[in-house]
Amino acid sequence: MTLFADLKKAIGTEWTDYTEHEFVRKLGEGTLPLPVFQDYLVQDYHFLVQFARANALAAYKSRNLADIKDATGALQAILHETELHRRLTARWGITEEELDAAAEKQTTVAYTRYVLDTGMSGDLLDMHVALSPCSIGYAEIGVALEPQRTRALDAGEEHPYGEWIAEYSGTEFQTAAQAATERLDALTAGSVTAERFDSLVEIFRAATRLEAAFWQQALDSAA
User: Fold this and answer.
1) Can you tell me the distance from the alpha carbon of 149 to that of 161, in angstroms, rounded to the nearest whole number?
2) Residue 193, domain CATH
3) In the annotation, is 202 catalytic?
4) pLDDT, tens digit, for every residue of 94-117?
5) For residue 223, is pLDDT > 80?
6) What 3 state SS string does the chain have?
7) What is the number of domains present in the chain?
8) Which candidate, 162, 210, 179, places its Cα nearest to that of 37?
9) Which end of the chain has fewer beta carbons closer than 10 Å to its terminal beta carbon, N or C?
10) pLDDT of res. 206
11) What is the per-residue pLDDT for 170?
12) Where's the Thiaminase-2/PQQC domain (predicted)?
């Protein structure tokens, strides 16, 4: 068992509340309204900008070259991820200037600043646990949704969100997620005390709840 698996088990259904959220289900089915997805993607772009800062902070807080390299690799993966967002928003006629100038919504601010605050006040393990629902959870979601994208292709159809699914089910993101999983175990040196584990669970639970709230924020944009 990995630390990540133990953290998921510790928070129970709160994990699936995130990974199987209505937003995710509708995205996989291809029934998610496009304006909802567009709202999500703009906010997720700003989300990634702040997560890039968090990984830069992780590099700063690292005490050895291996950890600095890990943080740099994670930062590069996020920068690659932003290219998907810029590519898709450009198709809708949103310029890069407009994308950068879009206001961050309340949940976007709450989540990203929670991660940054955790990184500032805690250690490197605290920060990577706060990042993990995104850095590893999206890979899990991508794998879960990939069969729906594949079925559409097999039927000669184009899944409306196939490009997004392919990004997170693809080799590059999956490799980055595996590296993030291994990083958590490396930072614990194979074990943590019960007290330390409980503190990590609370960080993981808070970040996972904020991930679910991030999906909900997009759904609420249609109200």
Assistant:
1) 8
2) 1.20.910.10
3) no
4) 888 989 999 999 999 999 999 999
5) no
6) CCHHHHHHHHHCHHHHHHHCCHHHHHHHHCCCCHHHHHHHHHHHHHHHHHHHHHHHHHHHHCCCHHHHHHHHHHHHHHHHHHHHHHHHHHHCCCCHHHHHHCCCCHHHHHHHHHHHHHHHHCCHHHHHHHHHHHHCHHHHHHHHHHHHHHHHHHCCCCCCCHHHHHHHHCHHHHHHHHHHHHHHHHHHCCCCCHHHHHHHHHHHHHHHHHHHHHHHHHHHCCC
7) 1
8) 162
9) C
10) 98
11) 95
12) 15-220
* Phi and psi based region of residue 190 (left: phi greater than 0; alpha: psi -120 to 50; beta: remaining): left
Give the residue numbers spanning the domain of 115: 3-220
Cα torsion through 84, 133, 28, 101, rounded to 10: -40
**pLDDT of the residue at 61:** 85
The predicted structure's pLDDT at residue 94: 87
Q: Given 81, 134, 140, 167, which residue is catalytic?
A: 134
Q: Could you read off the pLDDT of 47-74 as tens digits, one per residue?
A: 999 989 988 888 888 888 988 888 888 8
Q: Which two tokens stand for residue 79?
A: 């920068």
Active site residue 172: no
Q: How far, rounded to the nearest angstrom, does the alpha carbon of residue 138 sit from its chain's CA centroid? A: 5
Q: What integer is the mean pLDDT of 185-212? A: 94
